[in-house]
Amino acid sequence: MILNSRNNLFNFKFPRKFIPEEVAEKYKKYLNRVPGNLITEPIDFINYSIQGIGVPGLSFDPITQASNDGTTTYHRGSIPIQNTVERQFTVELQLLDGYINYWIMQDTLLYYYAKQTKKPFLDDLKLQILDGEGIHVMSAVFEKPIMNSITELELNMSSNIAEFNTFTINFYYNKFNLKLEID
Questions:
Q1: pTM for the complete prediction?
Q2: Is the dihedral of CA 47, 50, 52, 56 positive or negative?
Q3: What residue ranges do the domains of the chain occupy?
Q4: Rounded to an integer, what distance in angstroms lies between the CA atom of residue 12 and that of residue 75?
Q5: Do 57 and 88 meet the contact criterion of CB atoms below 8 Å apart?
Q6: Residue 61 DSSP code
Q7: Model pLDDT, residue 53
Q8: For 98-134, how does the pLDDT look when each residue is reduced to its tens digit (9 = 90+)?
Q9: Which of 55, 66, 122, 131 is the 20 to 30 Å CA partner of 106?
């Protein structure tokens, strides 16, 4: 029997060096205060809060050619594929107590856009797709990504119950590689 796909069969984690040491040190003291001391490294805290990843579909604008009889013919364009594909993706994270993961990601974004930061790109980011049995089927590697934006944080005094809320980080990448992992 062929099973339907499930949207939670993926593995995406930021690399260990994603959060700069200057930013990580700033939040370690707070994380050590969290009851249970389960997570003490900011990168683990961020990876724990990942809820989803959005990869845009592919779309190419065809070249149209009108012939003398009034009909239109569509052709593939000659623009390189990398210049026609929208090269961005989003990562959705759950807002955790104290919004700490939001502040960590905001500080990380500000760090990467600071003038003193020399590194032009982040380390490659890897998305692994799994099948229904948890077997690694495909890898999608986003090469030379840059962190672009973080959604706004909406706070409201009229809402005083703990809810499942998320925020989104937007990335652009320069190259996308798919690798089939099935032997």
A1: 0.84
A2: negative
A3: 10-56+71-122+145-173
A4: 37
A5: no
A6: P
A7: 94
A8: 899 999 999 999 999 999 988 899 999 999 998 888 8
A9: 55
Upper half-sphere CA count for residue 136 (Cβ side, 13 Å): 12
Overall residue count recorded for the chain in this entry: 183
For 24: left if phi > 0, alpha if psi spans -120 to 50, otherwise beta; the answer is: alpha
CA distances from 149 to 65, 133, 177 (A): 39, 35, 23
In the chain, the percentage of residues whose pLDDT exceeds 70 is 95
Widest CA span of the chain, in angstroms? 76
Token pair for 56: 């845009």
- CA 60, CA 84: separation in Å to the nearest integer? 6
3-class SS of residue 46: helix
- Regions in the chain scoring below 50 on pLDDT: none
